[in-house]
Amino acid sequence: MTHKNFTIGQLAKTTAVNIETIRYYQRRGLLKEPVRPYKGIRRYNEKDAQRVRFIKQGQKLGFSLDELKELMSLEDEQQCLEARNIAMKKLSSIRERIEGLRNMEKALSDLVECCSQNADEVSCPIIMALLNASHL
Known about the structure:
Blueprint: E1 5-6, H1 8-15, H2 19-27, E2 44-45, H3 46-60, H4 65-72, H5 80-117, H6 125-134
Antiparallel strand pairs: 1-2
Helix pairs in contact: 1-3
């Protein structure tokens, strides 16, 4: 395996993120900023690239940066149970949001159906439902 060194621009290109994203990850403590050699350029390695990819993939799965930081602190295999617990909490949260969206979809669908069957053009079921809900 060849040992690659990247400038921040090369790291950004390799991982398909913006340079400012890398700097943001550094400020958040998700990615270490390499030491700058005297009159030199900071160099990142493949492990840094893997970390950036890990963060981006985690975000696609719905993890916050704080959750990803916690997961990255559990790198050794003995921490798998803790990582699983974090993932289970995230999965539960996602399922709750999906259920909430399903309930919203059902309620709105019912209102649209009521509206399409409404012969009383003076009072719209959708507007009445929203007005009545605001009094709760």
